[in-house]
Amino acid sequence: MVKLKKQSKEMLFLLVGLLLLLFLFIFYHVLDTRSLHLGILSNEFVGFIFCVCILIIIYYLINGVNTVAQKFGYNYKEKMFNSLVKSSDTIYIMYDYEQNKLLYLTNNVNRVLEDSDKDDEQLEIEKLKKLFDLSSVLNQINDWDKKSNFVSQMISYRSSSYQQNRWLKIQIYPIKDKKKLYYIVLISDVTKDHLHQHFLISQASDIKSREKKLNQITANVYDTELDVNLETGLSNFIDLKHQKEYDENLTHQYEEDLANNILKNISSEDKVKVGNLLSLENLKSITSDEPITIRYTLKNKEEKIWLESTVFFTSNKNEKYASILTKNVTEDAENVRKQNIMLTNALESAKKASEAKTEFVKTVSHSIRTPMTAIMGLSETILEEKLSKEIKEDVQDIHNASENILSVIDELLDIEKVESGKITVENKEYNIDEVIKNVLNITKQNIHEKDIKIKLKVNKNIPNTLKGDSNKITQILLNLLDNAVKFTDQGSIIIGADCERINSKAKITMYIQDTGIGMTSEEIDNLIKDTNNNRGLTITSKIVKALKGQMDIYSKEGMGTRVTVTLDQEIVDDKPIGNINEIQDKVTEETVNFKDKKVLLVDDDKISLKVTTKFLSKYGITTKSVVSGKDAIKEIEKNNYDLILLDQKMPDMDGITTLKEMKKSNDFNTPVVVLTADAIKGVKEKYINEGFNDYLSKPINMKYLTQILKKYLK
Question: Is residue 381 a contact partner of residue 615, using CB atoms and an 8 Å limit?
Answer without folding.
Answer: yes
